[in-house]
């Protein structure tokens, strides 16, 4: 058990640094057992700062030498302890020389400088630079960097760092060197170096200005044939940022490096992006359609950070969403624009909202709830959350909804004009948007300062005589930790009205001056909800409409609106807004699933005649509508996940939810078998594999159809899955067939699992898929997962492998994880404790699997609490894990 309580850091306590760093020069003598780092920095005292002490941060370092203006600093001139080096009597202008020693081979946290498969890598965000040298390691301290790397030439032939290569050569003793210079000021979290045995694909690329730049994708030997998609994604990203936002690559080269041991997806270090291999390596043999899309998105995300995060960065870590939420929005828009079609954009929007609802809405309702701009934290690594990223993106999207696409671009232009080269705040971004758009966005600040997911209740009334239609919107937001009461948000609510023929009606608001010319009236209108409750009056409404509310998910809220089953089926069939068309189907399915779950809890028999209810009819209509995009059909015909259903319940019973979802899938499979088989056959993609959106959409619908058919668990279904597995020419189809087999009673499933591993045991990313598939299979219990942990390919030290098995089981197999005997919670505690000593950041993310424990049935709560308390009692608990566990138990 921790004997100390980690201290919280508060946004209100922010003060500028006492000294600014102007320049940094670093020399690395790279050795895996003992690397020496010589750092020279020039500093200037901050105007207004009266103190003469300089505070630098350092962790897991040996201080070898400290010199100030060329003179050694004696032990009376500084103190060192608890990760803080304080130097006394520092002049207003000073040059510091610091030599440190560190041991990359022993660095299992994968923060700072570490080794992976014999190569050197760094990860410095958020506070990893202090594991390399003593430094004022905070994002508002920006400096230019010049770096010399020295290493054994045979072992480490490639030496990379930020910026531009300005010199390289031999040292004459079997070692060589490279000097890199980054001409742009940056915070220390963007520092990076890579050294090792690597090969690259490179291309020159001509920017719109005519300047040519060098693009490189670096990988380990044997992976060069898996880099083309990442390179294409990088070129598309550069082109898109030029065209959409007028932003040009500012360096002579841009490098991506792939590493198999990485805590995150990727990192935007200036000019030297370091990526998890998962988001670089792809070819048809090893990567699925989802992998290809993920690579495109993440490559775009990290490249776009070059301006939204690097050129303009965060003043402090409370402003993290300033760069992350904004850049997620940019990568979402990039992927949607690249698809190019309205249906493709809609599918992308639906996918993004599904992530938000499955991950961020629960976070907003749990003990780790925090605003998009937090007020405090204990460990900043715990705040790289879906609230910061995905909800932050939705906040940025609302600016575009309120200002329009052109108005948003003007706001972005003003933001860069004002703040290029600076470390700024979320308020600075909001001010740029408000000033460029000529809008008062002061109330919009509450999206940054208030946690929780707002609820918007919709009430409607039609006056046939007056031909008027009223929509009353009422907002509320539940209490969250530290915020019992909430002020009204500024919420853009996009609405449309459908007539009895399913057509959009022209919208004329009473509050809008002008004539009643219906030919020029819009069919979608953004209502701005700023009060606790507001009523909006539409005139010239010639029949009672069916309202389509929150089109394109115009705000990250929970919408409370009473629809009949018939209205939902009508919207699912007719709404011109593809998001709300999908949403209607999800509401219909959710209503059915909640009713059946309540029946299971009450011990009632389930009604097996699914084809006679509105859901079955709606599924049949969607399956047989050849005008619909297959990618949209796949989403529309996918039932809400067990975790999403759980969020709709006051008391969660995981076994009942699982039973109902399986029952409903089997019922829909049985009632619509012929339609599923037609969809399967008509969406085949013969010929060479292509990850383009049209082909991927067809494969998605085909493989969803296969999963429904295999629910019937008969011989014909097993043969269909086995045939697809045996004959697949791409990973998408092969893994889908294997998943169908593993989640059935097919006699060949064990042989298929064994053959799959044998075929791909040399491909780490595919082995991750193999572990993950088994972890989430409905038959996999705790004992099976423990057995898989003994597999020679499993390693707890590799974050990807730990996530593929342990995280997949704890977060993706709720029925088995929440086993009534509590064995899943015991397993969870074992792994959190083990990971805590290896990689606290990964351990803390796993710890969050139980942070919603109070929402479950009482008998499960007791076992969850015991597991949480067991972790809390562990000696030497990291700050990362301590914060999560203590908040989970307290709230």
From TrEMBL:
Specify the Peptidase M1 membrane alanine aminopeptidase domain's residue ranges: 230-444
Q: Which Pfam families match?
A: DUF3458 (PF11940), DUF3458_C (PF17432), Peptidase_M1 (PF01433), Peptidase_M1_N (PF17900)
Ranges for domain Aminopeptidase N-like N-terminal come to 92-190
Q: Any idea where the Peptidase M1 alanyl aminopeptidase C-terminal domain is?
A: 565-890
Which keywords describe this protein according to UniProt? Aminopeptidase, Hydrolase, Metal-binding, Metalloprotease, Protease, Zinc
> Does the keyword field hold Magnesium?
no
Cofactor(s) annotated in UniProt = Zn(2+)
Q: Which domain of life is it from?
A: Bacteria
What's the catalysed reaction? Release of an N-terminal amino acid, Xaa-|-Yaa- from a peptide, amide or arylamide. Xaa is preferably Ala, but may be most amino acids including Pro (slow action). When a terminal hydrophobic residue is followed by a prolyl residue, the two may be released as an intact Xaa-Pro dipeptide
Give the family per the record. Belongs to the peptidase M1 family.
Q: Which PANTHER family match?
A: PUROMYCIN-SENSITIVE AMINOPEPTIDASE
What name appears for this protein in its UniProt entry?
A: Aminopeptidase N
Q: State which gene encodes it.
A: pepN
